[in-house]
Amino acid sequence: xxxxxKGDRPKTKDPFEGINTTWTRVEGGAPIGKILARVEQDxxxxxxxxxxxxxxxxxxxxxxxxxxxxxxxxxDEIKEVIRGCLGLYLExxxxxxxxxxxxxxxxxxxxIYRAPLPGGKPVVLSSLxxxxxxxxxxxxxxxxxxxxxxxxxxxxxxxNIRFTAPYWLLRPSTDGMYTVDDQLLRGLPESPRDFRVQxxxxxxxxxxxxxxxxxxxxxxxxxxxxWRPFDILPPVFVELTESFxxxxxxxxxxxxxxxxxxxxxxxxxxxxxxxxxxxxxxxxSSPFLELKKKxxxxxxxxxxxPYSGPDLIDLGAGFQIDxxxxxxxxxxxxxxxxxxxxxxxxxxxxxxxxxxxxxxxxVGYYMGAxxxxxxxxxxxxxxxxxxxxxxxxxxxxKQYDAIVTGIRAYNTKENLKFQxxxxxxxxxNGGTLVTQYNTGHELVLGDFAPYPLKISRxxxxxxxxxxxxxxxxxxxxxxPNKLSPADFDGWVQERGLYFPNQWDAAYEAPLSSNDPGxxxxxxxxxVAKYGKGYYVYTGLSFFRELPAGVPGAFRLFANxxxxxxxxx
Length: 568
What we know:
Layout: H1 30-42, H2 52-63, H3 69-86, E1 89-94, E2 98-99, E3 104-112, E4 123-131, E5 135-142, E6 149-156, E7 196-203, E8 206-213, E9 215-220, E10 224-229, E11 231-232, E12 236-240, E13 244-247, E14 252-260, E15 265-272, E16 279-281, E17 288-291, E18 297-304, E19 312-321, E20 324-326, E21 328-335, E22 338-346, E23 349-353, E24 362-366, H4 373-379, E25 383-386, H5 394-397, E26 402-405, H6 409-412, H7 416-428, E27 432-435, E28 453-460, E29 467-469, E30 496-503, E31 507-508, E32 511-513, E33 525-530, E34 533-538, H8 542-545, H9 551-561
Parallel strand pairs: 2-11, 13-23, 24-25, 24-26, 26-27, 27-34
Antiparallel strand pairs: 1-3, 3-6, 4-5, 4-7, 7-8, 9-10, 12-14, 14-18, 15-17, 15-19, 16-18, 19-20, 19-23, 21-22, 28-30, 29-32, 31-33, 33-34
Helix pairs in contact: 1-2, 2-3
């Protein structure tokens, strides 16, 4: 239903009353509208070809209109209507689903029409072109009704054909903003595909151009005929094996993985780093290699040296073949309800030079809903064990300097209700337990902390919001890393979420923050002494900040897991 808000109220119940949606709104369009109205009135589903002469007449009048939006739109639309009324089937399929520039591709072209024109007038396949500039032929073949025309041909893709990739991902992006240089691409749902066939058809002597995108068609026993896109991809893919590298010393090992996408790939692998962060090849073999088979994978390690320049940098990787540098990694998205998608993006990782000390060396991690914090702990130099329920025994927990529970663990891991007493006993005996954020809804047990606290929906969404030190001398702000407000610069997306708004006096709250115009929220980090150990509850978004390489987040998290190890 529609609710009238503003403007002239229509005199009838038609909300579009007074809005001209007919052909008369276009200069010179009135005759076109009359022809199409007659075609619509006379249309016969059992003889759609009888409508084609009127549609051809309307198409010629549309072509004569001044250039403009509606001319372009309606020409494309009326050609599709003519195609449908002719029962004209144009198919261009290829063997396989991918190729690289310069590859040969086996094509099968098929053309048939199934609805006769009045008086048996001819439909002629006059010519076809395989684009872009691959193959042209003049056929002059008069199509017989319901008689299939086929052509099987091997063509070679141009070396300069564009890769199939979402156009908005080809350039680096910023928060909520993509860079698209080609104005004509903006707003399109996907990138236009270059590998296509242009058919020139004469319909009763009137030339019409149609296009078919080359695709792959296979028959699978369980689902029948399956169509898949045919994609043009680079001959080689590169990726960095980690998304983030923490530089706490003079040397950082960085591994580049190379995967061949065709046979006999030869070239040189490179780590791309900015000035001040030079790198040298540190593997035993040469950076020059040959991958003989499609799908072959090789890894190469470089020694990254953070001598000078900015503390936080972007890294890339490349593989040079002759004069061309290939820098893309491949992500495949496959679901039954959408076409398969290949996403090409530059191989990327971040590296940070961080003055970091970590007294906790052996850390147990109990995963919750899923995050990348264990990888960050490994970058910090910790030995990390992903704990299973069977690992949570009093004797086994003694080996860990700290135990961390992943985000929403107490919302998603039902068995924690049986393990919590053992975790708190570990704290009482001198351990450190760091609990990352949970929501207050559907906790697997109500009293998961050693002292009462109540989780709220309080959060700080402004990642640049001021962080105030309420207890500047507190251990978590000073040992082993002395923190300052600068450690909260460069945070991403948010400060944190689901902060407690009520807690027992046993907890200390060293930090405070708030979004602009809101009251202070002091529950982002709570620390309590419990027995001989320490219990920490934090809603700070370490699960976002650590994978993003925020130096201050590493320093603060190192202080948290080091609470029970004041001396290395």
